[in-house]
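Let us work through a complete example step by step.
Step 1: write down the sequence.
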Amino acid sequence: MTEPNWSRQAIALAGMLMLCGCAIGGAALVGAGSAALVARFDVDRDGALDAGEVTAMLAATVPGKGSELDLLRAGLAAGYWTRDCDGDARLTAAELATKNPCA
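Step 2: predict the structure and record it as C-alpha cells.
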C-alpha cells in the first residue's frame, strides 16, 4: 500500500474513533457521532451493533487484506468491546459515547 493510502486510512480511522467516543471530544459531538455510527452500521436495526456489525464497520474503515490490517482491525474491535459494560454483546450509541466506560 502506498504512503498516501495509509495516510488517508489513518485520518479516516482517527475521525471514526473520535465519532464513536473513543477519543476526547465535545459531549454533543461524541453523542451525535456515536448515534450516526450505530445508525450507519446497524444492519438489523435493533439499535445496537453486534459482533458482525462491528466487524463490517471495521472492514469498511480499514479496508484491505493482510496480517497487519487484520491485527489492526482486531485491536480496534477489542477496544470497542471494552465499552460493552452490560455484557450483552451489543454496543449502543450510549455505550460508545460515554466518557468513562464501565466506571
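Step 3: interpret the result. The helical segments are 3-19, 27-41, 51-61, 67-81, 93-97.
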